[in-house]
Amino acid sequence: MSMLNGQVSLQNLVSMELLTNEEVLGLIRRGSDFKNGRATFKPKRQYFVANLFFESSTRTHKSFEVAEMRLGLNLIDFDAKTSSVNKGETLYDTVLTLSALGADVCVIRHPDVDYYKQLVESGHINSAIINGGDGSGQHPSQSLLDLMTIYEEFGHFEQLKIAICGDLTHSRVAKSNMQILKRLGAELYFTGPAEWYSEEFDVYGRHVAIDDVIDELDVVMLLRVQHERHDGETSFSKESYNSQFGLTQARYDCLKDQAIVMHPAPVNRGVEIDDHLVEAPKSRIVAQMANGVFVRMAIIEAVLRDRA
Ligand code: CP
Fold it and tell me: Which atom of ligand 1 sits closest to the CA of residue 60?
């Protein structure tokens, strides 16, 4: 990884922990430049990209596709349901194959935490690997679009009071964001059920009741309740989650004038946030989705920059 004249160059993008602050700022500024028409991508040759999604996705999958089309890349059609994965082929052999076919980039979402380590450490895969989410591990492109959305609003991260709210244990978005936001100087709070909080998060911020901080926050970052990753019954209904931990109209009314509300989506309307607040004036949930295309253009450009 390197930076030249403010231009970020990456071999892979697998975890926010591996990016420097300068690289993070370079990528989100470049994303804004793509959004505002100030950046153009100048391909040195024809590039090929494959999107391998082994978990469901709307935003990440489709915004990578749009980003790739906007950059003029050739998309290699890949459907996990009809691929040779169904004959027992491993992820490694699937990516080795796509690399041999000439895929410059493989964007991968997979349920296994750290699935990417074998791919990037093997020395046999020529494709750049972009992690589109590994189980409850990391979600770096989501984190970068979240940071771009915050930066557009405030122009900095230092001393912003940010609450990350909800299903922390199962959220790759939370893990990517807590690490980088702390490193960029934000003051973090965690809210939500104690059973979804772990002492390992203490190094990044404090676990508090949402009502104790709601009127001080600059950013309310809500997380989806990830029912599919819960082993057993939870101790609350949708209604009790909403009233104890969710963004209700009463809590929204306590927010500062300049505060913003974020959620990576998909949203459980009426659970993490009252249904009508998804499109409320302080909500940036739709802006996050739109920013995803532009920051993903910046990511793809960064992994292509030094390729022969
Ligand atoms: N935010 C996010 O990762 O959404 P998808 O699961 O739809 O990609």
Answer: 8
Among the listed residues 30, 35, 60, 110, the single catalytic one is 60
295: left (phi over 0), alpha (psi -120 to 50) or beta: alpha
pTM above 0.70, yes or no: yes
Task: List the chain pLDDT tens, one digit each, 308 residues.
Answer: 566 667 999 999 999 999 999 999 999 999 999 999 999 999 999 999 999 999 999 999 999 999 999 999 999 999 999 999 999 999 999 999 999 999 999 999 999 999 999 999 999 999 999 999 999 999 999 999 999 999 999 999 999 999 999 999 989 999 999 999 999 999 999 999 999 999 999 999 999 999 999 999 999 999 999 776 676 666 788 999 999 999 999 999 999 999 999 999 999 999 999 999 999 999 999 999 999 999 999 999 999 999 98
40 neighbors 67 (Cβ within 8 angstroms): no
Give the position, in ligand 1's atom list, of the atom nearest the Cα of 56.
Answer: 6
DSSP element (H, E) containing 183: helix 172-183
